[in-house]
Design a protein that fits this description.
Largest sheet: none
Shape: globular
Number of helices: 5
Structural class: mainly alpha
Radius of gyration: 13 Å
Helix content: 40-55%
Distance between the termini: 27 Å
Strand content: under 5%
Number of strands: 0
Amino acid sequence: MSKEAAQLDFWAKDIAPSNALRQWYQHDPAKWAEFRTRYFAELDAQPDGLAELRAQLGSGTATLLFSSKEEQLNNASALREYLE
């Protein structure tokens, strides 16, 4: 689905996993725990991007989108866990 078709209200590009991290992970379930650790470290290094995301989230419902065939072990589920 294109960004236009998704009708995104906000794209938090600054807090997406780095290209290097995504390429290393390659949705290998055996690397999930380490992916989360590394991604959380990347998120910790982006306080401004996180503050912007939290401001956009407000108190309403948010839908986190991801581009992966893996429905459980993906960056959106890791980000949700981090935010909670």
